[in-house]
Amino acid sequence: MEKLKSSKRFLFLSSIVIVLGVTFATVFKDTLGIAGIVFIVSGGVLFFTGIRRRNQENNQNIH
After folding, report:
1. Best CA proximity match to 6, nearest among 55, 61, 59
2. In a 3-state reduction of DSSP, which class is residue 29?
3. Which residue in 1, 18, 24, 52 has a CA-CA distance of 20 to 30 Å to 63?
4. How many other C-beta atoms lie within 10 A of the C-beta of residue 22?
């Protein structure tokens, strides 16, 4: 099986973390609502990291 590029790994992980955050924030809003918000923010950070790495990989391929 082929190993995913670093940027795709971060983008995939970010989508999973964001979905978990939305689930926690809506379904468990009384108990884990704050944890859901933290998961959403963490997923956003991972998403931006994945986009940045993808841009860096594209720039390296151009030069």
Report:
1. 55
2. coil
3. 1
4. 15
Report the 10 Å Cβ neighbour count for 59: 9
| Calpha distance 40→43 (Å, rounded) | 5
Q: What integer pLDDT is reported at residue 2 of this predicted model?
A: 61
Q: What is the pLDDT of residue 59?
A: 86
Residue 3 CA to residue 12 CA, distance in Å, equals 13
Q: Which whole-number Å values give the CA distances from 17 to 2, 31, 32, 41, 45, in the listed order?
A: 23, 18, 14, 9, 10
Check: CB of residue 39 under 8 Å from CB of residue 24.
Answer: yes
| Predicted structure pTM score | 0.83
CA gap 57, 62 in Å, rounded: 9
